[in-house]
Amino acid sequence: MAIVFVLVALLVLAVIVTANWYVWRRLFRDTTRGPGLTRRAGAVLIAGGWALAIAALVAERSGAPFWLQQTLAWPGFLWLALSIYLLLAVVAGEVVRPLLRRFLERRDRTRAETGTAPTASTADQAHATATLDTDEGPNAPAAPGGAGAAGTAADPKAGVGAAAPGAAAAAAAQADPRGGAVASASAPASATAAGPQVGGGAGVPGGAADAGTVVDPQAGVVAAPGAATASPAAAAAQAGPRGGATASATRPHPRTDPTPDAPEATPQPLAPTTGTTPPTPTGPSRRLFVSRVVAGAAAAAAVGTVGYGTYGVLRGPKVKRVTVPLAKLPRAAHGFRIAVVSDIHLGPVLGRGFAQTVVDTINATQPDLIAVVGDLVDGSVKDLGPAAAPLAQLRARHGSYFVTGNHEYFSGAEQWVEEVRRLGLDPLENARRELPYFDLAGVNDIAGEDEGQGPDFARALGDRDTARACVLLAHQPVQIDDAVEHGVDLQLSGHTHGGQLWPGNLIASAANPTLAGLERYGDTQLYVSRGAGAWGPPTRVGAPSDITLIELASKQA
């Protein structure tokens, strides 16, 4: 048996660790470009949150100093709720993630297909020509032909680059390390850069340049394929001391004022004349963007859900009104009102102020009888006695009654029974009270069996008059079978919290015959309250807290 327990514990631990790693990955690793402070902070946040949650649970169960319980309870229990909804939100994000990615891809594809880049204007071409004119090297005579744009780079040992001039094409030359030069056709504007050893030059007539021609390594020329001059004019040539020549297209106006120490010109960047806008990159940038959007939405949804659920608890329970017909109820009792409150859970989070809110809400309904059906506290009388003090203000014509819940047996049930009696409530420990119109019975919670104080239906109901209607107070709905066996007309219970935190209702439904509300089992009806407070996280999602006002109806009325 011990081995099975250890294996189950290890399995649960593995599930929790895996789930938290998954949350950390989606919220922190996938939203950052690499290791850094954000990832480390995320790991500390998740690990620290769970450390606080475990410490809060241990402190409450072990009876640690109450100030320590209060210090740990708020952050620890809230992290429990937040971690649940972070996990659920991140899992839901897996559905949104591919949809968002497809949407972005489709949008970018549409933009790429319809968008075009602006073409070069006449002003741009004029600017390119002016740039060429100012960047010419020394001793460059005028060419008699039309204006073109060319850029060359001279070899330090007098290599030659030939460029094809023209208004619609430009040549960029790249020098060969051994002296050759390459000229290529390019954009409509460029600049000519002369090497430090370039001297004078001779003109090269305009026309189509032969592609792929390489001359002597000391003075060779490679002409770009398809290069052509814009007019039959010849380009100006510059000669180096080793006999190499550089051909360059110039404007038709000659320049005769040589500049001896002209610096090398910097080639200008070339812009495409026409084309389409390239598509947005579809690699890591898009994935990072999608991850951040989904993670941000998940975090916001989780925080919002927990925040609203916590506000609902702290605000206090709302009154729910339910009419229950009883066949044996006399006509005089028609409309008899019972205020049912369960699972208040006073403790390190919900204290005296919350108890006062519950008492005021109950008294406002002006009930004929008040039934507190277990789980009043999570702590000792020493720590929570002052918090429970407002219960002394409960007012009902036929009194206030109390039965134990499972949490009383974690907190000292005997002491709490005496405390509620001191506060004016009547504890029904496997006991019955014969009221004017029906019998009211109460049984201890199942958890009391470990202390020899379990439920005893025979003692509470065995010798009663079965002709009278009977209302039973029993904390857990699973006690309904015994109630049916003993001919109870109505059982009032709590314990389930309605699931408290969705989807916890699925687990609670599997463990209880009725999750919340009124149901019939043979001749016995069972009403289960969702409770006024909350255990652990002071948060409710999908299961709002309530105080139920049961109005009994006589079928004889």
Automatic annotation (TrEMBL):
InterPro entries: Calcineurin-like_PHP (IPR004843), Metallo-depent_PP-like (IPR029052), Metallophosphoesterase_sf (IPR051158)
Compositional bias per record (Low complexity), positions renumbered to this chain: 137-160, 233-251, 262-277
TM regions (residue ranges): 6-24, 36-57, 77-100, 293-314
Coiled-coil stretches noted in the UniProt entry, renumbered to this chain: none
Region (Disordered) location: 132-160, 233-286
Chain ranges of the Calcineurin-like phosphoesterase domain: 336-498
SUPFAM superfamilies: Metallo-dependent phosphatases
Keyword vocabulary terms for this entry: Hydrolase, Membrane, Metal-binding, Transmembrane, Transmembrane helix
Protein name: Metallophosphoesterase
